[in-house]
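User: I'm new to structure prediction. If I give you an amino acid sequence, what do you actually give back? Let's try with this one:
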Amino acid sequence: MPAGKFSAIIRKVSEHVALDPTAKLTFEASDGIAPMQLHQASMPLVQGGDVHVQLSARGGELQAARPLAGRTG
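Assistant: Good question. You get back a string of structure tokens that encode the predicted 3D arrangement of the chain. For your 73 residues, that looks like this:
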């Protein structure tokens, strides 16, 4: 998903629901083979125009950092 689209979804939700700015962001994701699993996201990091979010499984297993599709600039 492009970073801009993701940001727009969060912005739209926050217009209708009071989001706690200290809340942790959680993703439900699958590699297409394994069942969906919950992952906790780190703070976004911009590197070379890409937005990177480190995902870690809620059980503590660390997943590789993956850039969101899209550029920041």
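You can read the tokens as a compact description of the fold. Here is one thing that stands out. The two ends are 16 Å apart (CA to CA).
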